[in-house]
Amino acid sequence: MRLERPVQIDLSAIAQGVIKNNMGVGGIELRVRGALAEGRATLTGTGQVLPVSGGPVHSSLPWLRLDGKDLGLGTADAVQWIAESAGPR
């Protein structure tokens, strides 16, 4: 799903909505503009901060790819770092 304006992300609500519709949660991947610093991603537009496991100490590119499935399901206390990029790919 692509959102055209910045909104707060509730990974738990997303995961529960998928489960409610009798579907398994295969993954919740976030591609967001933001900055990573010392294990926390601050999302551009909303200022929302998400804890991040893995990845570098600081990001150097404006787009972050994060896996939010386990945090949404309540089996982890942070999103998992995937990568960073210059654009939303």
Q: Look at the helices and sheets and give the structural class.
A: alpha+beta
Number of strands: 5
Distance separating the two termini: 14 Å
What is Rg? 13 Å
Number of helices: 2
Spans of 5+ residues with little confidence (pLDDT < 50)? none
SSE sequence, one letter per element: HEEEEHE
* Biggest beta sheet attributes: 5 strands, mixed, barrel
Strand content: 25-35%
- What overall geometry do the principal axes of the alpha carbons give? globular
Could you explain the architecture of this structure?
The protein has helices spanning 11-20, 69-73; strands at 29-37, 40-43, 49-53, 63-67, 79-85. The protein has 89 residues and is of the alpha+beta class. A five-stranded mixed barrel has the order 1-2-3-5-4. A hairpin with a 2-residue loop joins β1 (29-37) and β2 (40-43). The longest helix has 10 residues, at 11-20.
